[in-house]
Amino acid sequence: QVQLVQSGxxxxxxxxxxxxxxxxxGYTFSRYGISWVRQAPGQGLEWMGWISGYTGNTNYAQRFQxxxxxxxxxxxxxxxxxxxxxxxxxxxxYYCGRDEEMAALDHWGQGTLVTVSS
Amino acid sequence: QSALTQPAxxxxxxxxxxxxxxxxxxSDVGGYNYVSWYQQxxxxxxxxxxxxxxxxxxxxxxxxxxxxxxxxxxxxxxxLQADDEAYYYCASFTSSSTSVFGTGSRVTVL
Lengths: 118, 110
What we know:
The structure holds two protein chains of two kinds.
Chain A: E1 3-6, E2 10-12, E3 18-25, E4 33-39, E5 45-52, E6 58-60, E7 68-73, E8 78-83, E9 92-99, E10 107-108, E11 112-116
Chain B: E1 9-12, E2 18-23, E3 35-40, E4 47-50, E5 64-69, E6 72-77, E7 86-93, E8 99-101, E9 105-109
Parallel strand pairs in B: 1-9
Antiparallel strand pairs in B: 2-6, 3-4, 3-7, 5-6, 7-8, 7-9
């Protein structure tokens, strides 16, 4: 069965960077992309970007263009999200989801809580 | 890219039908048949309920249906049940080759 397992929660100081991993299993990793979505406490879902599992090509939401990098490692079927210049309003649960062509996230990781606080 | 617009809350009695609208623009909802809907119970991971405007993933009840007219997509839940009480989010592909979520709607079963 399809599974996406994310890395554990992180506590970071303002200005730091965080890297969240998303390990996929149960399907051919290169046939699908991975989208990253975040949810601040008590808020809605926010799409951050997408990476192709095959080519590694990326598409980022404009507001994250400067601060985000998404990568993937086909040898370990793992996708990564790196967010730099963390601010307190980056405190959120970060989700990865399998997403063939930015059309729909049909399987989701369990979420990773990133807390930014001095 | 602005979030798609959804009503903050929608409610209905058990057994009734409700419809949640999701309004965008020609650059997202109106321009592509890549609208999806997600259900999220509090503290839980979102779950895909509808994709490509009106398709249901395997295992999703046929009480959930999707449609689109011009720049507005909609999710209809028929035969409302207590477990349908949750937050619902729409999402759409956009002309910038990105995706955007809706503002989210809280569904209450009276």
